[in-house]
């Protein structure tokens, strides 16, 4: 039985490899017929696309897990809690990868700040199609006090070092809902920004971004380089395939520290207290309007 399982696995792997080779052969035929030689394609990409897109990936607690406040009320318990990529950052990664697939970008870089487990979200981004991952190692008490201004300065430095022409991030993280990283990063770099993007289109030297606002849609144009934050309806992120997940495990991730970038991560803000929301009182069914008015008067509401 074990031999049959091994043989079936080897046959499946061989079929996957043959399929990959056939798809690559078909693409090369299409490329030669419609796009020219490899040198021509490279020249077109160099001329018409942005060189880098940096995305920031935050490692957050899964929304279906029970969030517990620490006994000293300084934050939430993260030990033993499963983490995943922040959903808005996942949308940002998907948009960046789509730009690369459309030849709008030539390289996509994912950045994550945090302890060793932050590499898990970088592996997910690599499996989705990102070219390179950078892990900014921050752990212990430094990670607990890491704030949006620190992340913004780190991302700005990496964008400058990598000569990125565009930065796209999730509009906010679902754990702290700060919604500050994109705006602060744009300020640090002195780049234009387009936040809450539900649609992104690239022109020659500018981008057109559609934003969902109260009562309708707003369309703005920004000159490049620029910072974009992704909203919920920008796209539907892909599921990474098993072959890509396996390949992502072998891809190198560059590890650096904030001090390597010249960024001071000393806390600027002190958290006074983190508490569970008050327990909501049970509803009461009232027989009539007079009783409702009486109850409201008793509670001092009217």
UniProtKB/TrEMBL annotation:
Q: Note whether Electron transport occurs among the keywords.
A: yes
Which ranges of the sequence are coiled-coil?
A: 2-29
Cross-referenced CDD domains, in alphabetical order?
A: ETF_beta (cd01714)
Q: Pfam families, alphabetically?
A: ETF, V-ATPase_G
* Compartments reported by the entry: Mitochondrion matrix
Recorded hits in InterPro entries, A to Z, give:
ET-Flavoprotein_bsu_CS (IPR000049), ETF_a/b_N (IPR014730), ETF_b (IPR012255), ETF_beta_N (IPR033948), Rossmann-like_a/b/a_fold (IPR014729), V-ATPase_G (IPR005124)
Q: Tell me the superkingdom of the source.
A: Eukaryota
Query: Does the record carry Transport as a key word?
Result: yes
Q: Where is the Electron transfer flavoprotein alpha/beta-subunit N-terminal domain?
A: 73-265
The record's Gene Ontology cellular component field reads: mitochondrial matrix; vacuolar proton-transporting V-type ATPase complex
Which molecular function terms from Gene Ontology are attached?
electron transfer activity; proton-transporting ATPase activity, rotational mechanism
**Keywords recorded for this protein, A-Z:** Coiled coil, Electron transport, Hydrogen ion transport, Ion transport, Transport
Q: What Gene Ontology biological process does one annotation of this record name?
A: fatty acid beta-oxidation using acyl-CoA dehydrogenase
Question: What's the family?
Answer: Belongs to the V-ATPase G subunit family.
Query: Which NCBIfam families does the UniProt entry name for this protein?
Result: V_ATP_synt_G (TIGR01147)
Q: How does it assemble?
A: Heterodimer composed of ETFA and ETFB. Identified in a complex that contains ETFA, ETFB and ETFRF1. Interacts with ACADM.
Q: What does this protein do?
A: Heterodimeric electron transfer flavoprotein that accepts electrons from several mitochondrial dehydrogenases, including acyl-CoA dehydrogenases, glutaryl-CoA and sarcosine dehydrogenase. It transfers the electrons to the main mitochondrial respiratory chain via ETF-ubiquinone oxidoreductase. Required for normal mitochondrial fatty acid oxidation and normal amino acid metabolism. ETFB binds an AMP molecule that probably has a purely structural role.
Q: What is this protein called?
A: Electron transfer flavoprotein subunit beta
Biological source species:
Asbolus verrucosus
């Amino acid at each position: 039985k074990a031999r049959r399982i091994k043989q079936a696995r080897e046959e499946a792997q061989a079929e996957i490899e043959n399929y990959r080779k056939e798809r690559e052969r078909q693409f090369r035929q299409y490329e030669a017929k419609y796009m020219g030689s490899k040198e021509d394609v490279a020249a077109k990409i160099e001329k018409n696309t942005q060189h880098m897109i940096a995305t920031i990936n935050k490692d957050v607690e899964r929304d279906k897990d029970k969030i517990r406040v620490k006994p000293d009320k300084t934050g939430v318990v993260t030990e033993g809690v499963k983490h995943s990529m922040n959903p808005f950052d996942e949308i940002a990664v998907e948009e960046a990868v789509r730009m690369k697939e459309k030849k709008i970008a030539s390289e996509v870089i994912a950045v994550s700040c945090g302890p060793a487990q932050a590499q898990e979200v970088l592996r997910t981004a690599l499996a989705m199609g990102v070219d390179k991952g950078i892990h900014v190692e921050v752990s212990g008490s430094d990670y607990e006090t890491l704030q949006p201004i620190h992340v913004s300065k780190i991302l700005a430095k990496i964008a400058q070092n990598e000569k990125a022409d565009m930065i796209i991030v999730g509009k906010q993280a679902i754990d702290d809902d700060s919604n500050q990283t994109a705006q602060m990063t744009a300020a640090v770099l002195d780049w234009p920004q387009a936040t809450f993007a539900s649609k992104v289109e690239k022109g020659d030297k500018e981008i057109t971004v559609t934003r969902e606002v109260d009562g309708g849609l707003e369309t703005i144009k920004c000159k490049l380089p620029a910072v974009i934050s992704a909203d919920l309806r920008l796209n539907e992120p892909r599921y990474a395939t098993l072959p890509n997940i396996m390949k992502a495990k072998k891809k190198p991730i560059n590890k650096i520290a904030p001090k390597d970038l010249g960024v001071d991560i000393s806390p600027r803000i002190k958290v006074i207290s983190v508490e569970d929301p008050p327990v909501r009182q049970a509803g009461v069914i009232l027989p009539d309007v007079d009783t409702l008015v009486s109850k409201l008067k008793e509670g001092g509401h009217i």
